[in-house]
Amino acid sequence: MTPVLEVKNLKTYFRTPFGLGKAVDGISFSIGKGETFALVGESGCGKSVTALSIMQLVPGPHGFIAEGECFLNGKEITGLSESEKRKIRGNNISMIFQEPMTSLNPVFTIGEQIVEAVKLHHKKSSREARDIAVGMLGKVRLKSPETLFKEYPHRLSGGMRQRVMIAMALACKPDLLIADEPTTSLDVTIQREILNLIKELQTEMFASVLLISHNLAVVFENANRVGVMYGGKIVEMSGTKDIFRNPMHPYTIKLLRAAPGVEKRTKPLDTIPGAVPASVDFPAGCRFSGRCHREMEGCAAMEPPLYGRENSHLVTHLVTHLAAHLVACHLYDPGFMSKPYSRPLGKIPEAAPLPALPHKDRETLLTVKGLKYYYPVKKGILKKTTGYLRAVDGIDLTVRKGSTLALVGESGCGKTTAGKAILKLIEPTEGNVIFKGCDITRLSGRGLLPYRSLMQIIFQDPYSSLDPRMMAGDIIEEGLKSLKPGLGKKSRKERVSRVLDMVGLTPDMRNRYPHEFSGGQRQRIGIARVLAVEPEFIVCDEATSSLDVSVQAQILNLLKSIQQDFGLSFLFITHDLSIVEYMADEVAVMYDGKIVESGTVEEIFTNPKEEYTKRLLLAVPRIEVA
Amino acid sequence: MLNYVIRRIIYAIPIIIGVNLLTAILFFYVNTPDDMARKILGEKNVTPQVIEGWKREHGYDLPLFVNESEKGAGKVLRTIFFQKSLPLLWLNFGRSDRNNIDIRREIRGRMWASFAVALPTFIIGILVDITFAMIIAYMRGTSLDLSGVVACVILMSVSTLFYIIGGQYLFGKMLRLFPISGYSTGIHAVKFVILPVVIGVISGAGGGIRFYRTVFLEELGKDYIRTARAKGLSEGTVLFKHALKNAMIPVLTNVVVSIPFLFYGSLLMESFFSIPGLGSFTIDAINAQDFAIVRAMVYLGSILYIIGLVLTDISYTLVDPRVRLG
Amino acid sequence: MPVILATDLIMYFLFLMAASFTVFAARGGGVCAQVWRHIRKDRLAMVSMFILLLYGGVALMDSIRWRDPITAQDGTFAQTPDGKRIFNPQALSLLDRILHNLREDTEKTFSPPFAGYSYVKEAIERPNGATERDYAPLKHPGDHWLGTDKVGSDVLFSALKGIRTGVVIGTGTTIIIIPFALFFGVLAGYFGGFADDIIQYIYTTLSSIPGVLLIVAFMLIFGTSGYQGGLVTEDTLLFGFFVPQDRLFWLCVIMGITSWTDLCRIIRGETLKLRELEYVQAANAFGVSDTMTIIRHIVPNLMHLVLITLVLQFSSLVLAEAILSYIGIGVGPETGSWGNMINSARLELSREPVVWWSILGAFIFMFGLVLPANIFGDSVRDSLDPRLRMGKR
Question: How many beta-carbon pairs below 8 A join chains A and C?
């Protein structure tokens, strides 16, 4: 049977001011009828470009398909004329995107946008197209599709918009649906619903799906087969169960180990040193060389082809063998391994396990009582306050010394606002925050200064949390100047060097500007800046959520080790439950401005009492390899 | 909808009052009636008596804001501000300083000449600009795009003065296609209007095309355009249907605000082409140092601008479904 | 004896800015280096920058002026009875002195570029004593590259003298308003509340008045007062060398009032955005005072907007000045200005035969300034505002 899609040696390059970016550099795979094939990998590895290449929508004039072929139902499509390609787009292959909030045209109604595609590809009358569209809106489980048909996108939530996108993509009954990070910007409960919806409709329409995701668990739960991408190449490809049970490529192995989870609580996460390189400076040989823990002398110079697992025969560009477990690593090439350059470059030592400390009996550091934060809603000509938006509506929290309390919840539940109100970065409307016996909500101005150094915050976005016009050293010194005025210039400099060293940066990096650092390094500077003023309590506001899995592991490890070393307490604000499992001792679940349930991690995760908590926990995708 | 319009108009009231105060301060406080009289009567050989006489004749002999010599309401009523500036609010512009003509009547008589030149310039200008901008945006990344942008920058770098002088010289004097200047009422106005319109369109084209090109390119970079392409729509449909309707929103700000100004005309065009509109009225007033007319024109200009802003707000609601009324 | 006009200070400041830009760009980091990295790769922008530097150099030379002491018959300096030297009331600039040939070698009336003979016939006495009407030979044949005007002065020289006015208006206007726009914009954006309401009201009101009309009103009120070039009298001088009542300076101020609102609005908007950024909140968490936060985090991150405004406003200001001077409410007739040149050259086009070189001179010099300014401005904006960079080449 011919596969629905067969990609052969696809190469998509970009011309950039810094040279030729080989975003996708010779990948081959195929997708069978009704199958879900997933491409997984960290950001910048070429997943999305692959999708756009298949759609024949590589953004010009800088991007172009340099080589390779795509066969749709056995018919080559890269060589077609533009008008023939258009007949395929949206008809045979359709696509949904990561950002549902901006992917719909704001000035056309939802109905118009769906009907447009139907009328274009199937010669239908307006009436028929309308019926199809309304039918599709019903199929994606949107309530009252008739009224929704006439609605403009801005009235809909992100999850609803993604449903509309799915309705639009499937309205023409495509053979292949490409879903590019379809749930990345959505909450975990909605993610579950959307993924289930895609799966259901796929079965119903017997369509194939190309799922693109950075989230291993999402891929595990939804794909039949998986291709792991790194540096514009597929480094490993096999059936989902197989790849998660027996990962072969060092990158896949590391990626799986870097993901946080409850079973890894007692030890540091496995990390991959460095960061994903930019497409203009991929290494010449194996793309993973330089970061690989099994690297051999010849790896950086020689590019490994894809090997089949069974008999180590070369199967490059021949992916008809759908069931094969393919891996692009010299370790599995007997020919390479027999050569002198297969000598290992040296192993990175395993990190020592962390001593587990009991937390219940520890003393209380911080108590939050009935904290409220209301935004006034102003209306009318005179801007009268007509009501309040209850962002934080009376929450109680307790943080113990040396332990981590996680505040989890979905976007818009008020968790970030709560974190800021606790630190008095915004003025709470009501309630008390008692830190070491002192109610800091009563303090202001100078009186608050001593507490500013004891209570600190690490922000989410490593790009906007550092002033781009200041050098790293000055950024770290800023807090010292303000909060430790007694320190002389020399001791300030010393301390900057010390904290830089503590977070794994070198002291000579102090004279660099933020744009010269990678995302992970920037987050380290953010941590160093906080450590410099010697706090006892740190609010980590989604501190790792914008980082890749491997970099996230580095930062989580760093946070855990500084917690051990200095006996710090964390309030970990996050939406990612796997991080909670790994990092936290206690957890408070927040919903709509209120705490719905709290307790130790064990209690909440094994025996949730509230309906919302149960729903949340069920929605989290998990990798469960028996 | 009506509610919204009323609210927009109410928002404009403090600004109109502010403008009124500002013009009063500018024309009666910074520039005192004495200064005015001296400038009009000539710097030399004016005795204080002559100045006082002139002031009394034109009603400038009162105090600016508070008349201490009067009682009760007269303290406020018998002032320059109340008698000269406040009537501007109901568009009573008073009489000119030089010839004692009724300014409001003059404006009413002249505004249609301004309109006859400004309206075609405005409409043809927008059509030309948007058409070229869309062609350039459609061809983005090609050498045509590049040369189009270069041409725009070159067009922008030439002063309007040269367009007018060059246009008059080429079409009027060398080719003798149109009269160099002048105006006539009725259907005969056409032959006088063509040249200023052509020159007006050309002189604005560089900046206009470039502005609209940027607007279109910005829209073309948005996510929903990618969605539209992924549906299989042709590049033309993407550009002319999806991008154009969104681009109308920033275009409106630029366009609607200048609609009221069509009655106002252009200072330069009208003086060069001797069109008896409001622009040349202003220029004549400047040359004659007639402060009453200049003040009236400054105020009228502000009012038209504020009307334009209100119209812009209202037009948003017609194009952008995201703007909520109420 | 030096004479310094208020606008000369603008030119000196501009020179200092260019110099410090070079230093900062060379040191790396910051806005300047960011701009330089981009421009260095843009050949067109580099050529434009070179031309702009030439213009700037001429303008600077035209801003260094001094009065010569008057020498008495016996070769000593003339003195007042109380022993003070008497100075020539004419303050000649460095440019005037370098180009003294162009300035002094005048003809009687019109002559075309490079001509040897006058453009109009006049009565000439032949060597044989006969008088006839013919084209008279010029005193300086071939020396006038752009010909001479009605009163016989060199058109090239007039055009060169227009450079300073153009450069001063183009940059000075923005430079003058920057401190005010920054102060009020940041005040409104950072603190919000009542201050914000008031500042917004002021600039909305001010921007409601069409710019041209506001300038017209101001200049009409300003009348013909102020130093307009030409002779320096003792009563215009402050401390014996400074001329505060510089008409060109006041033109800058007045044009600044109309363009102030835009920059203020932009800065307010950007400050609102910056205030919510995490690094400002981090400073807040460190207990850094508002003043320090503004100085350290807000203002440096607004500088790119200021720079963009400075370069993008330049050309429109130069064009506006020409129009104002043309209408007769710009700089005075004694100040060199392309607007004045166009004003007098306009009627010459309707002469028979046509006198075309005056207007050509004004055209070449204006176009030669505005085109590179536009190209350079675009390049600077592209280097600083990645959002707008899209789609360009």
Answer: 60
Residues B155 and B85 in one domain: no
Return the number of CB contacts < 8 Å for B and C. Answer: 123
Query: Scanning every residue of chain C, which has its alpha carbon at the shortest distance from the alpha carbon of A512?
Result: C29
pLDDT digits (tens, 9 = 90+) for A377-402: 776 555 667 778 888 998 999 999 88
Task: Say whether C218 and B26 touch across the interface (CB within 8 A).
Answer: yes
Q: How far apart are CA C379 and CA C381, in angstroms?
A: 5
Residue B106 lies inside a defined structural domain of this protein: no
Q: What is the pLDDT of residue C295?
A: 92
pLDDT of residue A380: 59
Buried b (16+ CB within 10 A) or exposed e, B276-300: bbbbbbbbebbeebbbbbbbbbbbb
**Which residue's structure tokens are 């962002």?**
A391
Question: For residue B159, which residues of chain C lie inside 8 Å, CB to CB?
Answer: 319, 322-323, 338, 342, 366, 370
To the nearest whole angstrom, how far is the Cα of B186 from the nearest Cα of chain C?
Answer: 29
Instruction: List, for residues A156-202, the tens digit of each pLDDT value.
Output: 988 899 999 999 999 999 999 999 999 888 888 899 999 999 999 99
Query: With contact defined as beta carbons under 8 Å apart, do A166 and A117 qualify?
Result: no
All structural domains of chain C, each given as residue ranges with its CATH number in brackets, are 108-151 (no CATH), 154-392 (1.10.3720.10)
Sites in chain C below the pLDDT cut of 50? 388-393
Main-chain dihedrals φ then ψ at residue C261, nearest 5 degrees:
-60, -40
3-state secondary structure A419-434: HHHHCCCCCCCEEEEE
Architecture of domain A359-618: 3-Layer(aba) Sandwich (3.40)
Give per-residue pLDDT as tens, A491-507.
999 999 999 988 888 88
Q: Please judge whether C350 and B173 are an interchain contact, meaning their C-beta atoms are less than 8 angstroms apart.
A: yes
Nearest Cβ partner for A464 among C31, C278, C288:
C278
Alpha-carbon separation of residue C103 from C58, C144, C233 (angstroms) = 15, 11, 22
Q: Which residues of A touch B228 (CB under 8 A)?
A: 105
Residues in C 251-280 with any Cβ partner in A closer than 8 A? 277-279
Indicate yes or no: CB of B231 within 8 angstroms of CB of A120. Answer: yes
Q: What is the CATH number of the domain that holds B274?
A: 1.10.3720.10
Q: What ipTM was estimated for this complex?
A: 0.85
The amino acid at residue A23 is: A
Interface test with B, best of C201, C202, C205, C254 (most B CBs within 10 A): C205
**What's chain C's average pLDDT?**
85
CA pair distance B228, A116, nearest whole angstrom: 9
CB-based contact B242 A106, cutoff 8 Å: no
Q: pTM score, two decimals?
A: 0.86
Give the minimum alpha-carbon distance from C391 to chain B in angstroms, rounded to a whole number.
7
Reported as a single tens digit per residue, the pLDDT across A91-121 is: 999 999 988 889 999 999 999 999 999 998 9
Tally of CA atoms within 13 A in the half-sphere of A35 that contains its CB: 20
- B261 and B186 in a single domain? The answer is yes
